[in-house]
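ok here's O-methyltransferase:
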Amino acid sequence: MDGDSTRELLKNIDAYVADLYAPADEALTAALRESERAGLPQINVSASEGKLLQMLVEISGSRRALEIGTLGGYSAIHFARALPDDGRLISLELEERHAEVARRNIERAGLSERVEIRVGDARDALAGLVENGEGPFDLIFIDADKEGYPEYLDWSMRLSRPGTLILGDNAIRGGSVMDPDDPSSRAMREFNEKLAKDPRLSALVLPLIRDRIDGLAIARVLEP
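and the structure:
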């Protein structure tokens, strides 16, 4: 099977799973449409991965979640929907323009009371969370600049408790992490290795299908 045929098969499999288990609804469709209209990069999680993230919140019983990288709020909607009525998601976003779009999308979904978006450099925001004693979080999702992942993991550990789930998107990057030749892939390889070798974590990378193979890193904190 040639490359084009493989990509087409992957897209068809992803569409089959999404149509069956994660059909779009009005709020999610509007969030994608609004993000595209605003010129945001089309790098949000897939519908199937969004459903997986939502299920992980539900399965873990998380009440306090932290997201590093908001973009248009598509994944934040999935997280917030799974939180209890008194649950809270703090989402960190570098770009004010992205945050504005996300806030509109989250408000349209009726979830503004559960989500707080903080704008600025994630490293500064994470340091502030630690300094202000705002941890621990039950679940932390990393989906921001790839070169920052190793450092974001270090901060996440400081904001965790035993049982916290730490998730990292784009852990496979089409296989480039196996033989990285660019800074982003090298950083993701380092991130994966830190997860695998840290005795305080029990971790695995779950391969995911979109138009290429990617993956979601899932780690359970044993000891912060």
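+1. The helical segments are 3-21, 26-37, 47-60, 74-82, 96-108, 122-131, 149-158, 183-197.
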